Amino acid sequence: MSVQEVFVPQVSQALPCSFFQRPTVEVAQALLGTVVVKREGEEWCAARLVEVEAYLPEGDAANHAYRGKTRRNAPMFEAGGILYVYTIYGKHRCVNIVTEEAGRGAAVLLRAAEPVLGHALFRRRRGAVPDEALCRGPANLARAFGFDLSDNYRSVCTPELFLLPPPEPIPEELIGRSPRIGVRQARQLPLRFFLRNSPSVSGIRRVSQP
To answer: Is the separation of the CB atoms in 80 and 21 below 8 Å?
Structure first.
């Protein structure tokens, strides 16, 4: 069965918004292996998540919502199942899926994914890079999918943007955990989760940390 036959027609199997309205670490771990699917007109693109980072509603100084609600982080205070997109270094975007109940201020950053559908669309945005690098790193993932600030508040539970469960269960021994990458605050928290066997995982911390 082709990738398109597996992923494109299965909107009925999409994860419901209630999937994201749970504790953030639980959601982050469950996101590994899920497939992000996006429709753009007649084109589809999809990629399997292999690396994420959790940002907690309490005791997490690296969380954008740590000091309360602002215009920038307002999407984080909605109910889980929508996007929170922000700018880094003045030009790059990072995309998060909001988690937990409304008012909590929590999200999971999408750090890396393995393309499974729509390689031509990804390449138009990312150029001549290896397949495994098309969605490697949060800014590259956002660029490959074409996410920008206009996607703030966008639901991930629609026929045009949704997530599918992993095609197969993820063995626990394949899930790695480490401190997050590139944060100054709360850097000791082991809230980065990744699939050990994926060549698309970003950064250098591929060793699980207790």
So the answer is: yes
Q: Specify the DSSP element, H or E, that contains 142.
A: helix 138-145
d(CA 157, CA 159): 7
Q: Measuring CA to CA, which residue among 34, 36, 29, 80 is closest to residue 57?
A: 80
Q: Which domains, from first to last, does the chain contain?
A: 3-195 (3.10.300.10)
Q: pTM for this structure?
A: 0.91
Is residue 191 within 8 Å of residue 54, measured between CB atoms? yes
Q: Which residues fall within 8 angstroms of residue 201, CB to CB, at 6 or more apart?
A: 50, 51, 112, 136, 194, 195
Helix (H) or strand (E) holding 44: strand 43-55
Per-residue pLDDT of the chain (210 residues), as tens digits, is 334 434 454 787 899 999 999 999 999 999 999 999 999 988 999 999 999 999 999 999 899 998 999 999 999 999 999 999 999 877 899 999 999 999 999 999 999 999 999 999 999 999 989 999 999 999 999 999 999 999 999 999 999 999 999 988 999 999 999 998 888 787 788 999 999 999 999 875 444 332
Which helix (DSSP H) or strand (DSSP E) does residue 116 occupy? Answer: strand 106-117
